[in-house]
Amino acid sequence: MYFVSTVSKILLYEMERNILKMLEERIQVPKVLYSDSSCAGLQYPFLILSWMEGVQLSEYMQNGQHQDIASLAAEVGGTLAKIHHIHFPDGGFFDDSLNIEETVKLDKNNFMEFIEGSLVTGYGRKHLGKDTCEEILTFSREHASMLDCLGEQNCLVHSDFNPLNILVDTRKKGCTISAVLDWEYAFSGSPLFDIGNMLRYERIEDSDFIPPFISAYQKEGGILPKEWLQQAKLLDLIALSELVNKEVCGTAKPKDIKRLMLKMMIEWEKYDAVQTSYV
What we know:
The protein is an alpha+beta fold. The chain has ten helices and ten strands.
């Protein structure tokens, strides 16, 4: 049983239910078996979803065989392209019927608003430290103009597309993706949000995952702009900044996010060699 437990419980419940129904004939997602938004019997609206067999891709990538990981990376890339084939009239956030309730089109100005909102006026400085935040802000200002040419910003974005939310069925010879889970953060926007999230922890120079993932994404019709990897990393910087924009974050999460942010800035020039290989 799946409970929605945020302030906008019913909206998120309806939104995820409609997304799952829209996707069930396109990719592997749980089927909605029963739904109840009345809150009559339980405090929250709820969905009963079909059981999906599998282990998290994150777990499998730690222990799986090289050839299986390459095959799965290709399947993940193809699956993501199918998700991004779904378009909406505009970019922004959904209402419960998947209409665009709040229009958002990202450019350098609102990118900086998001970053500054987390690291200057938000809690980011508390968790990352003043010097790290200043370094990130300087870097962001230097490269923000890259987001003025993002390309399309009105496709379905999962917004949490990473190995934790992808299940792998290992029961048969030749592992396959059995489900993409957790659609409550979905919105209409740039496909590079999902690519940045998926590649957040990937090694850039010797990755076994990136070549088959991106090649399959393109083969299935996914479109990449010229500076796709650097743009995807900038979009993921928004997500990372938001993760530390909370009054209480513990100690492990800010440490990991700081490491990822600094790693991105150190590797920035290396991204160019990777992205030019695919466009």
